[in-house]
Specification:
Layout lengths: L12 H22 L5 H10 L1 H8 L5 H22 L7 H16 L9 H13 L5 H26 L6 H11 L2 H11 L11 H30 L4 H9 L3 H29 L4 H26 L17
Helix pairs in contact: 1-3, 1-4, 3-4, 3-13, 4-6, 4-9, 5-6, 5-7, 7-8, 7-9, 8-10, 10-12, 10-13, 11-12, 12-13
């Protein structure tokens, strides 16, 4: 899907393929055990998402446990999103807000109480395997990022209920919040062993780099899901650009690809600036580790969204999700 030539992916080879297959099997077993998938249809759909492949490309050097953890976080994020966007369940704004309140309670109030939905149990499991390994500053940042994602998703639900259409610029700002790229980038600090570097004078550039990565992920996702979103009447960058500029969907799609590719180039330019800003030695090594991890996430997202069957029309049966 990408036309940007300077986005690279490590060739996994046979050993990498075995790791990817094992991660895919592990994420399926995990989701089955927690009740995130409840029958053969849902299991096949989860397999078709190819999250083991996504994780393998995102954290290519991670040990097996961290590879599995990356894939399981990705599955949780996808399945929560699909609960409202892909299940054909008419989830009202109050239902969306209630679920996210319970999810935020899991990561701020000491865990799930055993009586919550499968999503709460899944998040509790993931959080217990991730947060204790990280600093208090990381936990605060993850909670803030997930809270902002939840707020943006609730805003989206309110707009959907009221049939409110955003303008293009407002949609772009919200999309970077609803794509869940920032919480996932936080997770990679753990699973890739690349914590946020304390780079004097570089905080603003680091924040901008993460927002650029979120834009790349969100816009690429919209390219992959455009047909599905159009069919089901959801806002999408492609359809919104077509409407605002009065052009065909194919023309709008080409424009979004160009916008996305420009954003990828912005990412690499910012990464180069951050590398140059860091002092030689330990500081630069830490900065490079973080930039490599975030760069792998961007490259993996570009690749994965071109091959996943997550948005295939055959996976829209119109039945309740697992939190009903």
């Amino acid at each position: 899907m990408s036309r940007v030539s300077d986005v690279g992916l490590a060739c996994p080879g046979l050993l990498g393929e075995v790791r990817v297959e094992k991660a895919g099997a592990a994420v399926l077993a995990w989701a089955r055990d927690l009740g995130l998938v409840v029958d053969g249809f849902e299991e096949k759909r989860l397999v078709a998402m190819r999250l083991g492949e996504f994780a393998g490309l995102t954290v290519p050097e991670a040990r097996a446990g961290d590879l599995d953890l990356t894939a399981q976080w990705a599955a949780f994020i996808c399945l929560v999103d699909d609960r409202f966007d892909r299940s054909h369940v008419d989830a009202g704004a109050e239902e969306v807000a209630a679920l996210f309140k319970r999810l935020l309670d899991v990561i701020t109030g000491g865990g799930a109480d055993g009586s919550g939905s499968v999503f709460e149990q899944a998040l509790d499991d993931l959080w217990r395997r991730t947060a204790p390994r990280m600093s208090a500053q990381w936990r605060e940042r993850f909670v803030a990022d997930y809270r902002d994602f939840a707020l943006a998703t609730c805003e989206e639900a309110v707009g959907r209920t009221g049939r409110v259409r955003l303008g293009l610029s407002d949609y772009v700002l919200r999309r970077r919040r609803t794509i869940t790229a920032l919480p996932m980038a936080d997770i990679l600090e753990c699973t890739a062993g690349a914590p946020w570097p304390g780079l004097p004078g570089g905080e603003d550039l680091m924040v901008e780099l993460r927002l650029v990565a979120a834009d790349v992920a969100g816009w690429t996702n919209d390219l992959a899901s455009a047909e599905n979103d159009l069919r089901e009447g959801r806002d999408n960058l492609v359809t919104m650009l077509s409407r605002e500029r009065g052009c065909s969907l194919s023309s709008a799609r080409e424009q979004v690809i160009g916008m996305r590719d420009d954003r990828v180039r912005d990412f690499h330019a910012l990464a180069a600036s951050l590398t140059a800003l860091s002092a030689p030695g330990i500081e630069r090594d830490a900065t490079r580790r973080y930039l490599a991890a975030l760069g792998s996430f961007v490259a993996a997202t570009l690749h994965w969204l071109g091959v996943t069957d997550r948005f295939d029309a055959s996976w829209s049966p119109g039945r309740p999700g697992p939190c009903d």
